[in-house]
Design a protein that fits this description.
- A 12-stranded antiparallel barrel has the order 1-2-3-4-5-6-7-8-9-10-11-12.
- It is about 5% helix and about 55% strand.
Length: about 240
């Protein structure tokens, strides 16, 4: 597909530990360990694993109705985070998995407004030779809580997406209602606009059960107004089990 020349600056975070050029001493290992401990101080590591009967990205299936396993590892310091992600997919270019690296930040405005912005570099693996498989997305999320009700907004923009898709924008508005300490219901309505034009509207509704503090089970219905585009745009019911570490 045609590509636009886009200046993309990748920020690399380097932690330089002091190195003493001297003969080894009995405290060399201890000093080295202390340097790394100081460099890593304040960072928190977390992870997430999800097993689902289908998959969803921007309102449509990524696996053509097949199951999906996905995982993510995230390092967080203050409001900044960096994440590595991997999941299986089934795309028209023949790719069967997608890897991603993301950097972003989270902020809280007052007690009830939460913001999250991230730049994500994605690669579709296993695609046919010559396929356009590398792309960048800018994702932004905002939410506000009113008692047991949370309103959400999401945007995902890419200047040059994968395959034949060039510029693409997806936006969604949603709401979640907490019914009890363990149960909640939620839904969303989204729209994707692309160039070349292949637009669609997507919606979802479902319920989530917190099995414990770090494990949840979600049952959700998805559909779009463009079933004629592909199997991925059809209606489906998805059961997803998620575990956070």
């Amino acid at each position: 597909m045609p590509r636009f020349a886009l200046p993309i600056t990748l920020a690399l975070l380097t932690f330089a530990a002091p190195v003493a050029v001297a003969a080894p001493t009995g405290n060399f290992v201890a000093d080295w360990s202390d340097d790394w401990a100081e460099a890593l101080e304040g960072w928190k590591l977390s992870g997430q694993l999800t097993a689902a009967t289908d998959s969803t990205s921007k309102g449509i299936s990524e696996t053509q109705g097949n199951g999906q396993l996905s995982g993510a590892a995230t390092a967080t310091r203050g409001g900044f985070y960096a994440s590595a992600r991997l999941k299986n997919v089934k795309s028209s270019d023949g790719s069967d998995y997608q890897s991603a690296l993301a950097v972003g930040g989270r902020w809280t405005v007052g007690p009830d407004i939460h913001l999250n912005s991230q730049i994500i570099y994605k690669v579709n693996g296993g695609a046919r030779p010559g396929s356009d498989t590398h792309f960048v997305e800018w994702q932004n999320e905002a939410s506000r809580t009113f008692g047991r009700t949370t309103l959400k907004a999401l945007t995902i923009w890419s200047p040059d997406s994968s395959g034949s898709t060039q510029e693409a924008l997806y936006y969604e508005l949603g709401a979640a209602q907490k019914l009890s300490d363990r149960w909640s219901v939620s839904g969303g309505l989204g729209e994707r606009r692309t160039e070349p034009k292949r637009n669609y509207t997507a919606w979802n509704a479902g319920a989530t059960l917190a099995l414990n503090a770090k494990t949840s089970l979600d049952l959700r219905y998805y559909d779009t107004n463009r079933h004629e585009y592909s199997k991925a745009h059809g209606e489906r019911l998805v059961l997803a089990l998620q575990r956070r570490f």
